[in-house]
């Protein structure tokens, strides 16, 4: 019999939310969603700092608890700063998350993602189409968005196998592919998460926020697998509550309600009962 996700990660589900300390997360990210990301961190009681000049890293890395590297908008300067921060995090043993935004779209982002992988970051994530391309599989993603075609049962099974092979070379990295079903693969196991609503694909920054919140949970000491599973489950449960409240509203209202829940749902002790997912 398969084990439910709340059984596998029972301690983390019981003790993580609301946060008991405020991890400081440096986010090197894109200008499209930078404000949403900073606020999402504050809503869960984490602290954002959006510093990307390498000259600042020696001072800054003595203060931060975790690092988020998001490939969503590349300039020559941001490319240098992503690569420098990735190396610096490895040298200073700071937990790091890499978000492969747009890797399905361009070779340049794919190459940066592969370079960042060489630092053995704690987590590499993207939507299902980005992660398929990253894992060497055919991907039908467009721009920064995932494609429904990459969500089939066969495609998910193929991706699970490809990621398992990657974890043999990168055993300290957990891989997360998001979408209608979220797939988590690490050297310790594979899990499928089933929360969320389709409207999450209709406003920008949902994946970016998941990346930043994952870094925050790493910053308070959760394991890679715990941080990924708790973040995706919590964020997607917030969206489910928002969708249920938003019967007459449009997507902008749904967005606001989802973000609002980030600061509210943690205080509802039984939110964990909403969580759906299982070990594969
Ligand atoms: N169709 C869907 N049904 C349920 N949850 C979804 C759906 N699409 C996306 N999500 C959720 O929204 C978040 C962002 O995922 P996704 O849209 O794949 O990332 P990105 O914004 O990077 O493209 C994840 O938590 C994911 O589980
Ligand atoms: C960088 C960027 N470019 C267009 S939308 C966007 C934000 C992408 O965020 P997400 O990956 O969360 O959809
Ligand atoms: Mg994304």
From TrEMBL:
ATP binds at residues 125, 178. Its cofactor is Mg(2+). It is an enzyme of class 2 (transferase). InterPro entries: Hyethyz_kinase, Ribokinase-like. Pathway: Cofactor biosynthesis; thiamine diphosphate biosynthesis; 4-methyl-5-(2-phosphoethyl)-thiazole from 5-(2-hydroxyethyl)-4-methylthiazole: step 1/1. Gene3D superfamilies: 3.40.1190.20. Its EC number is 2.7.1.50. It holds the Pfam family HK. One of its GO terms (molecular function) is kinase activity. It comes from the Bacteria. Keywords: ATP-binding, Kinase, Magnesium, Metal-binding, Nucleotide-binding, Thiamine biosynthesis, Transferase. Catalyzes the phosphorylation of the hydroxyl group of 4-methyl-5-beta-hydroxyethylthiazole (THZ). Belongs to the Thz kinase family. This is Hydroxyethylthiazole kinase. It comes from Lacticaseibacillus parahuelsenbergensis.
């Amino acid at each position: 019999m398969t084990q439910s996700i709340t059984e596998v990660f029972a301690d983390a589900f019981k003790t993580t939310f609301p946060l008991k300390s405020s991890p400081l997360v440096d986010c090197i990210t894109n200008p499209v969603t930078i404000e949403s990301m900073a606020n999402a961190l504050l809503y869960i009681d984490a602290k954002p700092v959006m510093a990307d000049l390498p000259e600042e890293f020696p001072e800054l890395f003595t203060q931060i608890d975790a690092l988020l590297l998001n490939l969503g908008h590349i300039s020559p300067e941001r490319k240098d700063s992503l690569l420098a921060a990735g190396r610096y995090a490895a040298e200073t043993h700071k937990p790091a998350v890499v978000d492969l935004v747009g890797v399905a779209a361009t070779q340049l982002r794919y190459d940066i993602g592969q370079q960042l992988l060489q630092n053995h970051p704690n987590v590499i994530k993207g939507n299902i189409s980005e992660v398929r391309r990253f894992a060497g599989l055919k991907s039908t993603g467009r721009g920064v968005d995932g494609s429904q075609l990459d969500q089939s049962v066969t495609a998910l099974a193929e991706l699970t196998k490809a990621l398992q092979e990657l974890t043999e070379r990168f055993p300290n990295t957990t891989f997360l592919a998001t979408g209608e079903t979220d797939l988590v693969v690490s050297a310790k196991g594979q899990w499928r998460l089933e929360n969320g609503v389709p409207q999450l694909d209709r406003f920008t920054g949902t994946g970016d926020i998941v990346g930043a919140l994952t870094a925050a949970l790493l910053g308070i000491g959760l394991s890679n697998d715990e941080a990924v599973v708790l973040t995706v489950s919590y964020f997607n449960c917030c969206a489910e509550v928002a969708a249920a409240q938003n019967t007459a509203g449009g997507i902008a209202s749904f967005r606001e309600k989802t973000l609002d829940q980030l600061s509210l749902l943690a205080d509802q002790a039984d939110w964990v009962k909403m969580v759906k997912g299982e070990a594969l």
